[in-house]
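Reading a protein record of the kind used here takes only a little practice. The record below shows the convention in full.

——
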Amino acid sequence: MVGIFFPTNLALFGFLLEAPDMQAPMLIILKKEKIIVRSCVEIHFICSIGIALAFVGIIVLSIGSRHIHSLFFKDLICTRIPK
């Protein structure tokens, strides 16, 4: 969770943003009750889909910005858009 404050890359930021969502159901599943296990599997599945869509968005963003050749924040902020 602390790593979310210090990323240098947009893809790393997305990964660190979603990592706690993937770990939370695994901590809850320790109760071993049937309904809790089912709910945790559903939450884990939904979070996995969200992470996959977020990374597809990052890929589309990097393809769409042809003048930017990296996803580092310093390059994204300091790059001027050609006219």
